[in-house]
Amino acid sequence: MTRTHGATATVAFAGAVRTFGDVQAVAGLDLTIGSGERVALLGRNGAGKSTSISLLLGLDEPTAGQVRLFGDTPQRAVRAGRVGAMLQDTKPVPRVTVRELVAFVASTYPKPMPVDGALALAGLDELANRRVDRLSGGQAQRVNFAVALVGDPDLLVLDEPTAALDVAARRSFWASMHAFTQRGRTVLFSTHYLEEADQNADRVVVIDQGRVIADGSGTDIKQAVGASLVSFDLQGRPAPAGLASLPGVLSVTVLDGRVRLRTADSDATAHALAQRGPVRGLEVTSAGLEDAFLALTSAPSD
Ligand SMILES: Nc1ncnc2c1ncn2[C@@H]1O[C@H](COP(=O)(O)OP(=O)(O)OP(=O)(O)O)[C@@H](O)[C@H]1O
Fold this sequence. Notes:
One of its GO terms (molecular function) is ATP binding. The chain has 302 residues and is an alpha/beta fold.
């Protein structure tokens, strides 16, 4: 896990709260990100990721608490050209070409990278002269990425950058992101795709109900919730009672007709389970980040 000591943090949320009427979208968020970190903000729908990102970019103000970028207000950091962002639901600008749009955005930054460099990093060389309102969804996402990085920002913020991309487009997106971060830049991206968080970030911050509930490497998070998973078929029956009190069991989830027991001791759990009667389709596997995430964000079902 990486922490920032001494040097000014790139990103600092301190007790940040944002309420909308009765809804606490961000409920006391404390998060510090240091220079050069690649951080995934991982959470289910409505966890507060986009609201946190809006606060971070100065598009919205916290109801309480504080958000700082490079030790300054988000607005000043953004105006100084230190931040590039890719947000959800951006509408294409009609009638300009990809190169014209990226060149225009470059002209608004103090130290942009060459436009051709940004186009190449985003995989847009072949589409440079195409109108931006005539692109596929995946191609439009690449333009959004070029727009985010052409200012050569110190911090890149990406809100669900791979939403709506197919597998091949996702892979090529992450390759572009890695090419950019080799330059030592800080990246914060939000995602629902748990394996993507694990594969593309050094640090995974899990948020739920507007708060940080876990923070570490993908491996740290898996270990925090137990390394193994014992699962079995319900065969249409309700989940038996008392599973949570079997030896080693840390959490119980029921998904697609299967019970999944996260356990610190898979041998003891499987043995105790078998002693209670016949078990169908028993499997013991190591827990993936997906399972860790479900365990962290689900209420116990037993
Ligand atoms: N402008 C708003 N007015 C009222 N409620 C809002 C507003 N923006 C967000 N919310 C609520 O705040 C909570 C957090 O929303 P947010 O969009 O930050 O979550 P998210 O983690 O980004 O979700 P998703 O993954 O679905 O994009 C949700 O309950 C949402 O309905």
